[in-house]
């Protein structure tokens, strides 16, 4: 996607700068567009843990490059396995991270150590190219959902889409998942408007989704997370589209905390609730999302404090709660498949069921 008129991906390699890895520091957006240069595996692990990079597909891609950086230091078997395990453990819920590391190891294990660095950069590059292509394809398959609503209504008024967290291009290598159909609809001249859940506690909606949509000229309104049910009751939402960090083989969906409540409100109000994902987000090894997906528990400080920019232009964190109040911070929840209208994948749309997924991905369903 473009920033100004310049096309960017959310991760890239600079061969002229020692094959370093470059990302946007997402903890500084929307106030500052800072590029981080990562030159060793520890920096990559830190960037993922602290959410300088985030979003399921993007952390997989960046971790893949992290392994390439690690192999430059030591490409022997034992070091490679140790560093791969360290990177895979940086965040627990998004399956793309484990998927990317396993794919890297499948390519690298048969090679001699001397050949591994070049192969690792090559494989990480392939992961990035494929992610960008898959997300573009998700956009093409999701677009008709928006077109149908616009055509059915026929009044030219905006199609109102609610989204949660950030599943845009900055959360992937390019295009995004939930936002890809929205970008395509907007680019084709459809009248779309996005309700952006602020997404406490880290405000990925207010900070990142609003920044992305604004940069692309897509009309949007940020709302408090608790507003979604009210908006749906008053027919102000035509469609919900969210991303996901892990989908089970039966169609349960783990995504940013609060997604489940939006799905409940959507069901109660007859609003279609769609989930957009590349197949790299499907965990074919698990069936029951509620019991089998590890939910990341993050520091309570993210709940008791909030970061923003002051009128003087300083980025500051202020405290919201009385000293001594404890906070719990589960970062994801699981929406049962029965509440999901359907899944938008790079191969098309399907029901959120084992049969639906298996029909689209027979070679992986087994
Ligand atoms: C295309 S990204 C899909 C998900 O990763 C996204 O919705 C999400 O929940 C991100 O969580 P985060 O904790 O910000 O990494």
From TrEMBL:
Q: What class of enzyme is it?
A: isomerase
Q: Give a GO molecular function annotation for the protein.
A: S-methyl-5-thioribose-1-phosphate isomerase activity
Keywords, comma-separated and alphabetical: Amino-acid biosynthesis, Isomerase, Methionine biosynthesis
Q: Which SUPFAM superfamilies match?
A: NagB/RpiA/CoA transferase-like
What EC number(s) does its UniProt record assign? 5.3.1.23
Residues of the active site: 245
- In this chain, substrate is annotated as bound at 54-56, 91, 204, 255-256
Record GO biological process: L-methionine salvage from methylthioadenosine
Site description Transition state stabilizer, residues in chain = 165
Domain of life from the UniProt record: Bacteria
Spell out the Gene3D superfamilies in the cross-references. Answer: translation initiation factor eif-2b, domain 1, Translation initiation factor eif-2b, domain 2
The record ties this protein, via Pfam families, to: IF-2B
Pathway it belongs to?
A: Amino-acid biosynthesis; L-methionine biosynthesis via salvage pathway; L-methionine from S-methyl-5-thio-alpha-D-ribose 1-phosphate: step 1/6
Entry-linked PANTHER family: METHYLTHIORIBOSE-1-PHOSPHATE ISOMERASE
Which HAMAP family does the entry mention?
Answer: Salvage_MtnA
Report the protein's function.
Catalyzes the interconversion of methylthioribose-1-phosphate (MTR-1-P) into methylthioribulose-1-phosphate (MTRu-1-P). Also catalyzes the interconversion of 5-deoxyribose 1-phosphate and 5-deoxyribulose 1-phosphate. Part of a bifunctional DHAP-shunt salvage pathway for SAM by-products.
What's this protein's family per the entry? Belongs to the EIF-2B alpha/beta/delta subunits family. MtnA subfamily.
Q: Which NCBIfam families match?
A: eIF-2B_rel, PRK05720.1, salvage_mtnA
Protein name per the record:
Methylthioribose-1-phosphate isomerase
Gene name, per UniProt, is mtnA
């Amino acid at each position: 996607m473009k920033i100004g008129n310049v096309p960017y991906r959310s991760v890239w390699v600079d061969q002229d700068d020692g094959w370093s890895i470059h990302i946007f520091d997402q903890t500084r957006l929307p106030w500052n567009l800072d590029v981080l240069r990562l030159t060793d595996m520890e920096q990559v692990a830190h960037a993922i843990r602290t959410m300088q990079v985030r979003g399921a597909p993007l952390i997989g891609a960046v971790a893949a490059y992290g392994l390439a950086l690690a192999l430059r230091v030591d490409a022997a078997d034992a070091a490679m396995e140790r560093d791969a395990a360290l990177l895979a453990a940086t965040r627990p819920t998004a399956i793309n991270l484990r998927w990317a590391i396993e794919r890297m190891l499948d390519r690298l294990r048969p090679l001699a150590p001397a050949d591994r660095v070049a192969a690792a950069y090559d494989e990480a590059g392939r992961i990035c190219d494929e992610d960008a292509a898959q997300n573009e394809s998700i956009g093409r398959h999701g677009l008709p959902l928006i077109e149908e609503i616009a055509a059915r209504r026929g009044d030219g008024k905006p199609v109102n889409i609610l989204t949660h967290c950030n599943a845009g291009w900055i959360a992937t290598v390019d295009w995004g998942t939930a936002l890809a159909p929205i970008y395509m609809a907007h680019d084709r001249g459809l009248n779309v408007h996005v309700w952006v859940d602020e997404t406490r506690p880290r405000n990925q909606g207010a900070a990142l989704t609003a920044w992305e949509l604004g940069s692309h000229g897509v009309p949007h309104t940020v709302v408090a997370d608790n507003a979604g049910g009210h908006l749906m009751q008053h027919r102000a939402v035509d469609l919900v589209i969210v991303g996901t960090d892990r989908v089970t083989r039966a169609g349960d969906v783990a995504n940013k905390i609060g997604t489940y409540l939006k799905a409940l409100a959507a069901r109660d109000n007859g609003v279609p609730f769609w989930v957009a994902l590349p197949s790299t987000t499907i965990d074919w090894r698990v069936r029951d999302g509620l019991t089998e997906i590890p939910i990341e528990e993050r520091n309570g400080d993210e709940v008791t404090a909030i970061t923003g920019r002051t009128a003087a232009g300083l980025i500051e964190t202020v405290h919201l709660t009385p000293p001594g109040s404890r906070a719990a911070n589960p970062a994801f929840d699981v929406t049962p498949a029965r509440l999901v209208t359907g899944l938008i994948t790079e191969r098309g749309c399907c029901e959120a069921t084992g049969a639906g997924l298996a029909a689209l991905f027979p070679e992986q369903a087994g």
